[in-house]
Amino acid sequence: MTELVRLVPGVCAEIILDNPPMNVVTTELTVRLNEVLKTVAADDDTRAVIVHGAGGRAFCAGSDIAEFESLHGRAAEGKVLLEKLVYRRLAGLAVPTVAAIEGHALGGGLELALCCDFRVATRRSKLGMPELKLGVTPGSGGTQRLPRIVGPARAKELILLGEPIDAETALSAGLLTRVVEPGEALDAARALAATLAERGPVAMRIAKRLIDAATETPLDEGLALETDGSEAVFATDDVLEGARAFLEKRAPRFTGR
C-alpha cells in the first residue's frame, strides 16, 4: 500500500500522486492530499510546487469509479465538498504551481491540473473530461475553471462531448503551457519551477494573487489592488536588491524580506 500522496519538500517542492497504476482519485487520496497541501502552505522556504503522478502512465486518470455506487444520493457530502475544499487549497497556494502531465489527465485528474498555474504535458498526453459519458458531470471545479482558461465554447466541447484532446490541441487552446517529448514532462516542470523560484518571492506571491483576482474583480477595484500590491513590494528589501543586481549586472539574491 502506498502513501497515495507523497511530498518531497524543498525550494521547489514536489507533490506526487501515487495510486498505481493510473493514480485515480479516491477519498483516501483526497484526504492525504489535503494533509500534504497544509504542510506545503506552512513551509516559508518553498517558492514553487510541482504536482505529478507516479509511474509515468498517467498524471491522474480521474475519480475512482468503483466509489460511485457508495456515493449514490450523497455525492456532495461523500465526495464533491471534500474535493472542492482540497482542490481550492491547491489553487490557493501562494506560490506558483506546475502540473507535470506525463501520460493522461482525465476527469478529476484534469480538474486537479486546472488548479495549477502552469501545465506541462507530453506529445502523447490526452486531456479531457469524459464524465458525461458516465452520466455524471464534472464536480470538482471543471465546469468553472475550464471556461476561465479556454473560454466557454471550447469548454462546452470538452465537457459536453466528453472526448479527450491531444496535447497540441490543448496547447493551442491555452490549456497547456508547454508540450515536450514523452518522458520529459517532469524535467521540464522542474526547470520551469526552478526559474519561478529565482524570482522575488514577495512579488511572485502578490502577482499571482492579483492575476487570480482579475477575472472576478471590476477593473477599477483591480487597479486599486494592484496599487496596494506595488506598495507592499516597494516596502521590501528585495526591491532594493533587484535594482542593485541589475545595475551591477549580476543575479539577484532575493530573501523574501
Automatic annotation (TrEMBL):
PROSITE patterns: ENOYL_COA_HYDRATASE
Gene Ontology BP term (one): fatty acid beta-oxidation
Record EC number: 4.2.1.17
Assigned keywords, A-Z: Isomerase, Lyase
Pfam family, one: ECH_1
A molecular function (GO) term: isomerase activity
Reactions the enzyme catalyzes: a 4-saturated-(3S)-3-hydroxyacyl-CoA = a (3E)-enoyl-CoA + H2O; a (3S)-3-hydroxyacyl-CoA = a (2E)-enoyl-CoA + H2O
Stored InterPro entries: ClpP/crotonase-like_dom_sf, Enoyl-CoA_hyd/isom_CS, Enoyl-CoA_hydra/iso, Enoyl-CoA_hydra_C
Keyword Transport appears in the UniProt entry: no
PANTHER family according to UniProt: ENOYL-COA HYDRATASE, MITOCHONDRIAL (PTHR11941:SF54), ENOYL-COA HYDRATASE-RELATED (PTHR11941)
Protein family (similarity comment): Belongs to the enoyl-CoA hydratase/isomerase family.
This protein's name: enoyl-CoA hydratase
